[in-house]
Amino acid sequence: MASAANSLRLCLRASRKISVRPAASPLLRRALTTTAAQCARPGRKKGWKDPSDNFEFPEPYEGKAFNDLGEQLRYSLENDELNEADRAAVQQALASWENKPNEEKLEEQQIIKEIDKEFAPLRAPVRARHNSFWNAEEQDTDLITDEVGEDDFEENDMMAMGHAKLEEHREYREYARIAVWEMPLLSKFTKKFEPPKENEVLRFRYTTYMGEFHPADRKVVVEFAPRDLSELTEVQQSKLCKLAGARYNPEKQTIKMSCEKFELPAQNKRWLGDTIARLITAAKDPTDTFEDIPLDTRHHKFKSIPKYPKEWYMSEQRKKELLAQREESLKLDMKKRRTRELIDGVKLIEQGVLSSVKEKEPVAVRVKAR
Amino acid sequence: MSATNCLRCLGRPAVAGASRGVIVPVFAPRTAPFSTTAVQNAMPGKPQKSMEHQDRSVRVYRAGKKMKIKKKGNLDRGKPPAPGERKAFRKKIVLSNDNALPVPWVTEMVAGSLSDRKQVGTIVSLPPVLQDQLRATEAFQPTQTWGLFRKPSTLIRQESVDLIGKMEKAVENKETARIVLTGEKISGKSTMLLQAQSHAYLNNWIVIHFPDAQELINGSTEYAPIPNTENPTLYMQQNYCLKLLQSIKKANEKIFAKLLSVSSHSELPQNITVNQPLLSLINAAKEAEGAWPVFQALWSELNAQGANRPPILLSMDNLPHIMKISEYRSASFDKIHAHDLALVKLFTDALGGNARFPSGGAVIAATNRNNGPRIPSMELALKQRLAVQNGDSEGMPVKDPYFKGYDERVEKVLKTVEVMEVNRIGKKEARGLMEYWAASGLLRTTVDEQAVSEKWTLGGGGVLGEMERAALLTMKI
Amino acid sequence: MPPRLNLTSAFRALSLRASTTPAAGTSQPLFLQQSQKVAAPAARRFYSGDNLTPDSQLPQSEQLPPSSSSSSSSSLSPEQFDNAAQQSVRQQQQRQDNVNALNRLEMVAYGLNPFDAKEEGHKYGLPSLPLPSELHKDHRYDDVMGQITRLLMKDGKLSKAQRDMAMILNYLRTSPPPKLNPLRPLIPGSPAPHFLPLDPVTYLRVAIDSVAPLVKIRGFRGMAGGGRSLEVPAPLAARQRRRTAFMWILDAVQKRKSKGSGRKMFPTRVAEEIVAVVEGRSNVWEKRAQVHKLGTAARANLMNPQIKNFL
């Protein structure tokens, strides 16, 4: 008995939407075409198009079946839409066809049939299988290559790995050439370092990715030390540091800020300059000098790098001191040894144990715990 | 059709046996319906002991088939240790080792030994009476190595002479020396306290010692608010107080027998009139209920101006513990600050300079580094005090203005104390110590300069406890 | 006995150069060569210096390696003259070094020590050998102590085991001298009991060595017939014996009841057991006796023909 599950499966199968193209009869196609045949179904209007098709070949021979080439040519001559040049060509072909002997005609027909037969599997319409998984067997038409014999080695070349190695060497050599011939030319662009002048306080950093697009290439960073702003008094400088907040580095005593708001580095730099100018004007503002507020350094973690203590460095004087100490201690040892005051733990233990045996056994006087 | 095997287990069902011609009683009414458990048959022919089990069929069938996990031979032997016995083992203090050799040159400590600058680097032993007194105030600690030597002895260090000198000077001027001992781990801070107490006992001072500040604040003793104290409410710890009174009495019995009271105390359970010995005042505290008033009365008697009172040493170990919020809760379930506990307040007042002893004395507290909490304000205050003492006004550490963990009450207490650092010992002292060890038979080497400097270096450049670890607590003896 | 002298450093002192003249080995001793250098001009050894041959009187160019000699031999520019002068100085130096090295080699050949400490250049002098055990990290502790501490160790915490061991030793130091049981004699040669407390390492050693079993029982499965295993005594090495003994002691410690708490508890229990072993009160003695009895009873099994292949 058909179970409920089985009937459900059948229902689902019936309602599945599959575009199936019926196999057209071979004579409905143009001869020598490798394209899969597309045709209007009989019983449909001529203007009807299958919406799934992207485009259609014109079908001048619709519904006709020809016995031979001559018949086909004659039929095409009957078509009114043919232009003059085509018509002449067709007529010429028809004439040559008719002049041929019969055997040749038969032979030609035979050849066409054979070719059709050969191409039949290629023309076969692609059907989705019922039980395939996501149409897995469908070919990817974009990647069709002739894969036959691609990996065969014909003993007339290096292997692929050899080519790769060669390519690597070429790359090395290219860079070696650059290093030898082109890099020295860079020395033309060298500039002598000039320390920043008194009034050049800000130090900007830009980022370039050598012409490549990068979201960070617009970023501009500026760093300056408030101490260098000689126009500010000390109070104003400290106010500036307090205004800078977490951008102030108390260890290096610099303010560092960056901007990547705008699209161009120049805009960002402009913004930074404006901000610094505003900061300085605010720092100069005498209404509130912020002197009662201590500098906040909670954002900064002070690193303490232990250094070798200065006192530990060996100097000539220290060496002499140490030598003197050692000498003194040796003398002390010698003196104690001479007067037999030097204490030898092992000997003492032996003596002590022996003497304790001679005496009576000591009584345990361990004091009890509380 | 039925299966040959049971569904849930590999046993054969009872029906299968019928084909073999074995007569099987019909079980159908006895098994629980819808049960998937295999039916377990009780031994056939075994007479059922009681008939009342007949109906509770499941129980009967399962009888004798319980899974028993046999415990490995961890049998209980005898009775478990009595309450407090295990702790007593942990806290046991042994002060002598009869196997250790007596050291001939070690003398007994006398009243002036610890203040004698010439005796620095020598070892002195504690006389038996002093041992009992120190034991009463719990000055010995189980982590110290008293139990290795013949007699409990202690090294006179430069720092101990300095400390005793300060105590003596304060007594001369009828002032109170307020000192906090700091230093590295196991550098000898508690032993310095012990030496200070020894000096006090030998010079007939009155000693009140809090052996571990932690006991006061960690919620291990009972507490109650003191009536008529508002803003802040103070709390008394009667049990601890009783214990403290007993230890004070035991340690200072001789002196208290001579001292007479100057005022009458009618509020106590036992009425104390004028000119009664203070010993009877202490004896008034028989139970924990009356301990706090007795302690208060005693404290007021000791501080009575005009009466000829001996100097007082008030000391406490593990100071950082009382510089934080305690584990106790108030009636509104707020945490109580340690300084609101009456006993702690008494000590901190004295340390802060609010109490004046009539004939001078000392308040000494030792910090601890191993088991103590980090109290930022205490550390800062001590550093500041140290900078002031060294005359280093530039290197004075300052408060972090944005740190919230400071405690004003702590700062107030430590504002004027004197800080003494217990440093590492010098090689001369180390030599004296090691000669003592070797002579006691505990160090199997010749004590020459090389051996001394080896142990001195292994001990972190003369940290006394570390030297002990390197020489006495090793596998190479 | 192989000579303690190291030839490599002597060789290192030689400056090696390719020479233009082919090397010719001689069987003559070097000092003879040196004395006969005029008499035997052709005699030259591969590693020998230039001063040994009359070639040293020749111009420098011939002494140089072949590559450089080709350029300098034809005509000398002033620069090359300078170079040659420098080279001559350098070679003079090398020659001197070679003479020293060769002298040393000769001394080596005669079994003398060519290096005195001064010449070797030790900054702090040589240590006296053999090194004391505390200077060697692997032999810092007594061998029994090292083994037993690792048996005490749990979870790889060696430092804790060492601390425990130190506490055990301190317990032994402070406990009264053991009262020996004549029925359970200690290992022969052990010190008198009153010596033990002040030498806790020996105390522990004596305790362990006294109860260490001599044999263990190996069972050969199914060889006794009827599926029973054939018990065969096998001797134990010293380390194995100590290990067995200490594991027995640790088993006994496990069964001991803990009376207190704290980090001293475990070492105290171990130390109490060790005292019990020395005093003959411990059950470990019975274990040992049992193993020995079994070993004695089963010694006939050693003659079992099946066993012979295994032993």
From TrEMBL, chain A:
Residues 192-312 form the Small ribosomal subunit protein mS35 mitochondrial conserved domain. The lineage of its organism: Eukaryota, Fungi, Dikarya, Ascomycota, Pezizomycotina. It comes from Triangularia setosa. InterPro entries: Ribosomal_mS35_mit, Ribosomal_mS35_mt. It holds the Pfam family MRP-S28. GO terms for cellular component: mitochondrial small ribosomal subunit. GO terms for molecular function: structural constituent of ribosome. It comes from the Eukaryota. This is Mitochondrial ribosomal subunit protein-domain-containing protein. One of its GO terms (biological process) is mitochondrial translation.
From TrEMBL, chain B:
It comes from Triangularia setosa. The keyword Kinase does not apply. It comes from the Eukaryota. Keywords: Mitochondrion, Ribonucleoprotein, Ribosomal protein, Transit peptide. The keyword Isomerase does not apply. It is found in: Mitochondrion. Pfam families: DAP3 (PF10236). GO terms for biological process: mitochondrial translation. Belongs to the mitochondrion-specific ribosomal protein mS29 family. InterPro entries: Ribosomal_mS29, Ribosomal_mS29_fun. GO terms for cellular component: mitochondrial small ribosomal subunit. GO terms for molecular function: structural constituent of ribosome. This is Small ribosomal subunit protein mS29.
From TrEMBL, chain C:
Its main location: mitochondrion. Residues 56-96 have a biased composition (Low complexity). The keyword Ribonucleoprotein applies. Residues 135-299 form the Small ribosomal subunit protein uS7 domain. Transmembrane segments: none annotated. It comes from the Eukaryota. It holds the Pfam family Ribosomal_S7. GO terms for cellular component: mitochondrion; ribonucleoprotein complex; ribosome. The keyword Mitochondrion applies. This is Small ribosomal subunit protein uS7m. It is found in: Mitochondrion. Residues 47-96 are annotated as: Disordered. Component of the mitochondrial ribosome (mitoribosome), a dedicated translation machinery responsible for the synthesis of mitochondrial genome-encoded proteins, including at least some of the essential transmembrane subunits of the mitochondrial respiratory chain. The mitoribosomes are attached to the mitochondrial inner membrane and translation products are cotranslationally integrated into the membrane. GO terms for biological process: translation. Keywords: Mitochondrion, Ribonucleoprotein, Ribosomal protein.
